[in-house]
Amino acid sequence: MDLRGQDGTPVTLSYPAGTVLVVSGLPGSGKSTLLRRLSEAAPAVDPRTVHEACEAVMPAWLPYAVYRPWARIEYFRWLRAEVRGGRPFLVHDCGSRAWMRRWLAREAARQGHELHLILLDVTATEALAGQDARGRWAPRRVFDKHRRGLARLLGELSGDSLPEAASVVLLDRVSRERVATVEFAP
Fold first, then answer.
1. Which of 108, 78, 106 is nearest to 18 (CA)?
2. Cut 0.85: pTM above it
């Protein structure tokens, strides 16, 4: 469903119970803003939360690069626990890692559930402005990596399907504001 360029009345997106709902987009595209709005319907798994939790127990002098592998392991443990829990949940994801979507889709399918995707398609300029607004910036190298990965994902969608996702909703900055909430129905 392509909602890009559409403003208007608020909408509610409906998904089956147990859905793994991945929200993807460039750093600064509005993923966190959207997830905060949607998190009333389901918990959100955010790698930033894991990063901050790991940072809180590490010595201040230790750079994140040293304990990043531990943080990533913790993040995947959290994702696996949520998938196996059988209830719906939201995933904050950059969208550049196809292997992660496939893994999540396989894990969800083992539990009898589906992966659905909300993709925030904003320009690099808009995403960089979003980073400025929040006062937190992704390093240029990381941003460029995410931009290339997201371009690949959008290219895959040109055929109107993504094998690992039961559905895809495309949003931009305007249409993102229309999504008022999500619901998970049996």
1. 108
2. yes
